[in-house]
Amino acid sequence: MILLMVNLTDLERTLCELIELPSINPSLKCDDQTLTGEEKIAAYLESRAAQVGISSKRMKVLPGRDNLLLSIRPRGKVRSRIILAPHMDVVPAPKTSFKPKRKKGRIYGRGACDTKGSMTAFFHAFLKIAQNGTIPQNTEILFIGLVDEEFSQAGSRKLSQKGPPADLAIAGEPTSLQVVSAHKGNLWIRLKTKGKAAHGSTPQYGVNAIEKMTPVVRLISRAYQDFLKRKTHPLLGHPTVNIGKIQGGIQPNVVPETCEIDIDRRTLPGETDLMVEAEIKKLLRLHKVNIPEFSVSRSVPCPPLDTNQNLPAVQAFLKAANRRKTVGVPYFTDAAPIAMGGTPALVYGPGNIAQAHALDEWVAIKELEKAEACIFRFLNSLP
User: Fold this and answer.
1) Which of 35, 119, 200, 281 could form a disulfide with 22 if both were Cys (CB 3.0 to 4.6 A apart)?
2) CA–CA separation, 120 and 126 (whole Å)
């Protein structure tokens, strides 16, 4: 396909080649298994790196799914380390979405924005340092392609556990070239009410679990929303809550025995799972509503990110990005699991989150070029 696209720059060609390699997260619903898995991306990057003398390592994460580690060693002893960390997986899309197109200054295709655009910019800057840039005296540069960001972030969690630690990691995501130092955490809570089943013609003999859940839904949708607006963070604003799923009963002529709702609670730095549960229960007691059963419906912790923007490495990156300050975003990224392991992390990349996961996903070529230039300036300035 890309052979038919003339006058592509090297940067554009790399992005198109990455788009043409489908890498749908295998944990997400996809009927065509030939479109799933990150291995094709890892092998492509590995081969390109080998052509300029960069050796690779693999970090086993899940069966058949490895993080890819590429390293540029410093001229002297390693005294610091920088990690470039885009993820290799994408969300499901039709097979036609993996045929890249260039139109009106944009590259279209699944992953163009989230996050093969970032991957391309990071990788090109990384290769330029190895070939034509200034190899740092004492800083190791790692390019790490991560698996599983779109499902449970298993790749970044494994990196956090196994290392190596670094002075700064940059997670690739579409930030419109803003430097992100903070994002909200993500807590999924399941609430369950129990009733007593009975025939629909004699509801007086049963206890309706949906009716027991109704005041809970009303409070979370109104009073709890108002309560959350009193909390604030300088970069993130206030926390949010969304009732994303409700399930109860089996059919109309049976009094429902159970009812469940799943809540998405976006947390601020300093908030914990226990704090959130406690404040919801306190609100229910205040309004004399029976407290339902609580459980966390997500198996892995998803805490907020709040990186100190005064760290020297962060300030150096801001300078390279021509930005005076960092910003915050509401969505969750690999940066938080990486930071859980002790490595300060930022989020950065070309593209807008509004295009991520869209059927006509795209990234502006000018942003792609600016992102590559920013990463190169940063890497070229390392001690």
Assistant:
1) 35
2) 10
